[in-house]
Specification:
This protein is 63% helix and 8% strand. The chain contains 33 helices and 11 strands. The strands form 2 sheets. It has a 5-stranded mixed barrel with strand order 6-7-8-10-9. Helix 19 packs across helix 21 (502-511) and helix 19 runs antiparallel to helix 25 (543-556). It is globular, with a radius of gyration of 30 Å. 46% of the residues are buried.
């Protein structure tokens, strides 16, 4: 399905469900990007747009479109236009000036609320309520709810409370449900809570979707979903192999210094390995404390402060600690609005549970409680300690590799130098293996912590909501900051959510009118084989899989599911298997061709070296393999670009067929809002925001890293804040991005990017070396 088709479908669905504002956005976007104004899809979009404008109480605009459609030759279209135009003409003529003005005020107030211009929204909505002739209408109630929100966000709590209490008399069940959810947040400040703890600080009303219930009983044992793996097996295998890696490293070093007595070297290596691992196990949380305090200013708090911010969270902490006979973990808060939570330590009774301030900003009380329950699950399962140790050991193998490479240059003894070089090479090999083992452990433990949270709170839907809102919060904060948060990037492996995956689900939540829309971005997670591939390099399971598991737990508890993952699965089964899997094996080989062809060339070269003793052929085959691999990959990743069709962020993220290799060539129009590199003021990557979401842009100078540096320190800063058109290849991994070809500003300036250039130059360069290097021997 093309991006335009997805936009059209979304517009029709929104209009049919009376979400007229959203429908107008999608349908207008489709009509603007549709090249054939006589096509069936374009006419259908125009007809639905008329209905959306009519429902949105803009009969003048609906009539204007009808008059444009009167030129169509299709008799059925002409008949439809005549009928609807007659109705619209009557509506326009009969509308009193006051009624017209009220409609305009309603629309302007709606737009101001959606754009969070609350101060501007208040007088618009107040005047609308005065002019509206029908105080029992749905629009009147909606305007009242918007006005409560605007009062709340601007600090007029008494007005918000009075209007909310007035809405209690409304007979509409949806309005009553909204009032029940909103009233507690308005009454919080009267209990003596600090203003920062009230929902006034929230940048957006996060209760947009009706909440399902929760289980009548808690601590009900739930059946683990099949794709989660075994936490015990993952932990045991990971630590055993990591222990073995460190043993081999120290064994190697032990045999270096005790080369005349290998038995003593073996014994020394085992002793040092055991002592080293034990010391690192107990020291790692202390080292983490120092790092957290220095980098993020972690503030340690008592349970009473957490209780003031989230009463249900305190209840969950007491309950879990009592039932599991745990000492309360050390609780920390980091003053950062990016929502996250993580746990670390060496023993359950000395664990640290740290969250950011943004968690209390973006999540509701019950959602915060599920996040804390999730982190407590890591403590109960001991996987937080295993993860802390595993991450430490992996870093040690890298340090041995790095130090060994430098140390060998200062050793004169050839035998010792060769041994150190061997140890460094092995350390790097172990580092790669250890990284993937740790990633697998990290993904597995998240599934088990999610299940634990569902069991102890009886609220799996709450955790599903929490994950989506955390993603939303990361996206929102990312739009405010010119650089990504160092907290989010620095705690990626430990945090409850992978920030690189936030753009997809966070963007969907940002504009979705109901949870079903969010499910569309999960199709890629659950059914695209590239999702399986990128998950191998991810610290967390893909969000769609986590939500699906939590939905399963809700069903086991007999609860309604807020995110209809069954529908997502049904849609996924309708996807074209040929497009998903037909060429995936070949595409994967092409995606790794720079590595595979180089290995093939190296292997053939070794064969020739051993058979014929010919160094010239060895270097020719090896270097030529490296060069050919680079050229092959560049050719498929960056083909000759066609005309770039306009698209939007959400449409691209909803494409279940998106690929890492075969990027979709598109144009995104929006504002450049910052850099894509955490903490790097010279970063050349950028972030663009359109009306549907946020996208990362990767820039590549024809001068390579030097050009990227100068672009990042110079032009990038001047471009931030500009309205631009970004043209390039969209790709979907754990997070989405666009490999830029060019950026066009509204002022007419164009800045070109060269993602293919250096790959082709380096490829040709290696092939050239393949012919030149043999001449040196």
């Amino acid at each position: 399905m093309s991006p335009n088709s997805v936009t059209l479908t979304a517009g029709i669905e929104a209009a049919s469900q009376k979400r007229y504002f959203e429908a107008i956005e999608h349908l207008e976007m489709f009509c603007q990007s549709c090249a054939d104004t006589r096509s069936k899809d374009y006419i259908q979009a125009q007809m639905w747009l008329v209905k959306a404008y009519q429902g949105y109480k803009q009969p003048e605009k609906a009539l204007e479109i009808c008059q444009q459609m009167a030129t169509y030759e299709n008799p059925q279209v002409k008949s439809w236009v005549e009928k609807i135009a007659a109705v619209l003409s009557t509506t326009v003529k009969s509308a009193t000036p006051a009624k017209k003005q009220a409609g305009e005020l309603f629309q302007a107030g709606n737009i101001a609320i959606k754009q969070r211009r609350y101060v501007e929204a208040i007088p618009l909505l107040e005047e609308y309520l005065q002019l509206c002739e029908d105080s029992n209408s749905q629009d009147y109630s909606q305007a009242q709810m918007w006005l409560v929100k605007a009062y709340q966000r601007t600090g007029h709590l008494e007005k918000a409370l009075a209007l909310c209490e007035q809405l209690q008399q409304n007979q509409n069940p949806l309005v009553q449900s909204w009032v029940q959810q909103t009233l507690p947040s308005l009454k919080k400040p009267k209990t003596g809570l600090p203003a920062e703890n009230s929902q006034i600080s929230q940048p957006e009303n996060t209760n947009r979707f009706a909440k399902a219930g929760r289980a009548a009983k808690i601590s009900v044992k739930l059946a683990m979903v099949g794709f989660a793996g075994s936490l015990g097996l993952a932990s045991g295998v990971t630590l055993s192999l990591l222990f073995g890696m460190v043993l081999v490293l120290f064994l190697n070093l032990g045999l270096i210094w005790q080369s005349n007595n290998p038995s003593m070297g073996l014994g020394l290596a085992i002793i040092v390995t055991i002592v080293f691992n034990a010391v690192m196990f107990f020291l790692s949380p202390i080292l983490m404390d120092l790092a957290q305090n220095w980098l993020y200013g972690t503030r340690w708090v008592n349970l009473s402060e957490i209780e003031r911010k989230s009463p249900e969270t305190a209840k969950v902490i007491r309950q879990v600690c009592q039932n599991k006979k745990l000492q309360q973990p050390r609780l920390g808060i980091i003053d950062d609005e990016n929502p996250t939570a993580f746990t670390y330590g060496s023993l359950p009774n000395t664990a640290r549970l740290v969250v950011s301030k943004g968690l209390f900003t973006y999540l509701d009380d019950d959602e915060i409680a599920t996040v804390y329950a999730h982190e407590l699950g890591h403590i109960v399962h001991w996987d937080f300690a295993v993860m802390t140790l595993a991450a430490t050991l992996v870093q040690i193998t890298y340090l041995v590799y790095s130090y060994g490479r430098r140390l060998k240059n200062y050793i004169d003894n050839k035998k010792i130098r060769d041994s150190i070089e061997t140890a460094a090479t092995m350390a790097y090999f172990f580092y790669l293996i250890g990284t993937y083992l740790t990633l697998y452990l990290s993904r597995t433990r998240e599934y088990f912590a999610d299940r634990f949270a569902a069991e102890v709170t009886g609220n799996p839907n709450g955790l599903s909501r929490a994950l989506i809102k955390i993603a939303y919060g990361i996206v929102e904060e990312g739009q405010k900051a010119k650089e990504p948060s160092q907290l989010i990037e620095g705690t990626r492996a430990l945090g409850i959510y992978d920030p690189k995956a936030a753009a997809t689900s966070g963007t969907a939540y940002r504009i979705a009118a109901q949870p079903a829309q969010i499910g569309k971005v999960f199709l890629w997670d659950m059914f695209n084989p590239w999702g399986w591939w990128v998950e191998l390099n991810s610290t967390h399971p893909l969000t769609g899989k986590r939500i699906r598991a939590l939905t399963t737990y809700a069903e086991q508890l007999g609860l309604e599911t807020e995110f209809d993952m069954a529908r997502v699965v049904r849609e996924g089964k309708k996807l074209s298997k040929k497009r998903l899997y037909g060429d995936f094996a070949l595409d994967l080989l092409l995606f790794k061709s720079d590595f595979l062809v180089a290995v093939i060339g190296f292997a053939l070269g070794l064969i020739m070296l051993f058979v014929a003793g010919n160094f010239k052929v060895f270097f020719w085959l090896w270097f030529t393999g490296i060069g050919l691999g680079m050229i092959i990959k560049a050719a498929f990743m960056f083909p000759q670009p066609p005309l770039a069709p306009k698209s939007d962020v959400l449409t691209l993220m909803s494409d279940p067929y998106a690929s890492l290799l075969r990027g979709k060539f598109v144009q995104l129009d929006g504002e450049l809002i910052g850099r894509g590199d955490a903490g790097y003021i010279a970063g050349s990557d950028l972030k663009i925001k359109d009306k549907t979401g946020l996208m990362y842009l990767r820039y590549a100078s024809w001068l390579g890293p030097v050009g990227n540096f100068f672009f990042g320190t110079g032009l990038a800063s001047s471009l931030i804040g500009e309205e631009v058109s970004a043209i390039g290849w969209f790709r979907r991994g754990v997070g989405p991005w666009v490999d830029l070809l060019k950026i066009k500003t509204d002022t007419g300036k164009t800045y070109n990017s060269y993602p293919r250039f250096w790959k082709l130059v380096m490829g040709v360069g290696f092939i050239f070396l393949g012919f030149v290097a043999p001449a040196l021997f």
